[in-house]
Write a structure and sequence with these properties.
It contains 7 helices and no strands. By secondary structure, it is mainly α. It is found in: Cell inner membrane.
Length: 149
């Protein structure tokens, strides 16, 4: 097994976030949509929270509380990283048997419709599931998807 760095987990999280289909049908089944929304929100908002926590203490000349404000700022800045890290770890996790069967069924449906796909994985991960789901929602019609959603 190869060693992965935290940086690679962040990159995998970004890739997984870009790949996962943001569909309401999947929201009840998988937590990814909530994590992706929270991570995107934290990426936009938390830098401002970090700056405001430090600047507010400086504006009120409360330099005694600056260490606590810097701690809050540091925590706020790490929140998007926590989401990316979780998504990166999740993307590399092997699917449980029930989801692996689901992955294979959807994969076979896409290929039976005549669409080209990468080779079927023996041990699919959540990233491959995201890719297959993304392709299914883009290339299959609603009647084909009714069986699963």
């Amino acid at each position: 097994m190869t060693q992965r760095t935290v940086w690679q987990d962040f990159q995998n999280g970004q890739q997984y976030m870009a790949t996962w289909p943001m569909r309401k049908e999947l929201a009840a089944i998988f937590p990814e949509q909530r994590y992706i929304k929270a991570t995107k929100f934290a990426t936009r908002v938390m830098p401002a929270v970090a700056v405001m926590s430090v600047l507010s203490q400086m504006a009120f000349n409360n330099y005694g509380a600056l260490p606590q404000a810097m701690t809050v700022a540091l925590f706020a800045l790490t929140m998007p990283l926590q989401g990316l890290w979780w998504l990166g770890k999740r993307s590399r996790t092997t699917l449980p048997p029930s989801l692996a069967i689901w992955y294979r069924e959807i994969y076979e449906k896409i290929t039976s419709e005549g669409h080209a796909m990468q080779p079927l994985k023996k041990q699919p991960r959540y990233l491959e599931l995201a890719e297959v789901l993304n392709r299914a929602f883009k290339q299959l019609d609603k009647t084909s998807l009714e069986r699963w959603f």
